[in-house]
């Protein structure tokens, strides 16, 4: 069983989304804080990202933001987080998000969320890490993505075992259930490889 103390959450930066999703992001932050799990995120005070951080902070949780200097204005760097790490590039952001986190979760998001989620999935596919990854399929948001992956599996491009690289949670509580039930990563602290 895995003891997760820091959870990296990938999620959308747009605020023009279903208010239920914004509520779910706040609730994810709250539930992480209640469990003493630190949130690691992209550092913006916009959209799902901002709601996530606000939810965790309001519940007394620890939140670490990692934001490239060039995005500080566009993504409205959050002024109230426990720690803000300003980095020089998108690549550094992703690397530090990886290093600082025991596990990863994707809430609803856009292209940036897909990029970040698939990078961490493909690093796992290559055996570069063994940390838990949860796709939070809230309200079925990721159903079409899962259908695409099933199609790719049927076509032989995704190997059947690769669908086991991540878990799917239909509810926020199930994210934390999935994390708790995940095996302890075989190579903790393996970030030196990056
Ligand atoms: P989006 O899901 O498109 O709203 O983006 C969510 C977050 O992903 C935002 O903070 C973006 O800055 C970030 N993002 C977008 N593209 C990349 C990338 N190539 N590498 C790292 N972060 C990214």
Structure description:
This protein is α/β, with parallel strands linked by helices. The protein has a single domain (6-183), classed as Rossmann fold, CATH 3.40.50. It has helices spanning 19-34, 47-58, 90-99, 111-125, 143-154, 172-181; strands spanning 6-10, 38-41, 63-68, 83-87, 103-106, 133-136, 167-169. The protein has a seven-stranded parallel beta sheet with strand order 4-3-2-1-5-6-7. It starts with 5 loop residues before the first strand and ends in a 13-residue tail after the last helix. Residues 188-194 have low confidence and may be disordered. The site of adenosine monophosphate has 17 residues, from helix 3 and helix 4.
């Amino acid at each position: 069983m895995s003891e997760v103390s820091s959870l990296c959450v990938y999620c959308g930066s747009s605020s023009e989304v279903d208010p239920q999703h914004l509520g779910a992001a706040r609730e994810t932050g709250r539930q992480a804080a209640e469990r003493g799990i630190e949130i690691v995120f992209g550092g913006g005070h916009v959209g799902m990202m901002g709601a996530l951080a606000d939810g965790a902070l309001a519940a007394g949780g620890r939140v670490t933001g990692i934001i490239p200097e060039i995005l500080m204005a566009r993504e409205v760097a959050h002024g109230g987080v426990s720690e803000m790490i300003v980095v020089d590039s998108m690549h550094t952001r992703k690397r530090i998000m990886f290093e600082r986190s025991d596990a990863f979760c994707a809430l609803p998001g856009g292209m940036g969320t897909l990029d970040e989620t698939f990078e961490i999935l493909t690093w796992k596919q290559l055996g570069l890490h063994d940390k838990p990854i949860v796709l939070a399929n809230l309200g079925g948001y990721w159903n079409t993505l899962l259908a695409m992956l099933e199609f790719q599996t049927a076509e032989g491009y995704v190997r059947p075992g690769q669908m086991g690289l991540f878990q799917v949670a239909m509810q926020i509580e199930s994210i934390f259930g999935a994390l708790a039930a995940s095996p302890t990563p075989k190579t903790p602290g393996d970030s030196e490889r990056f």
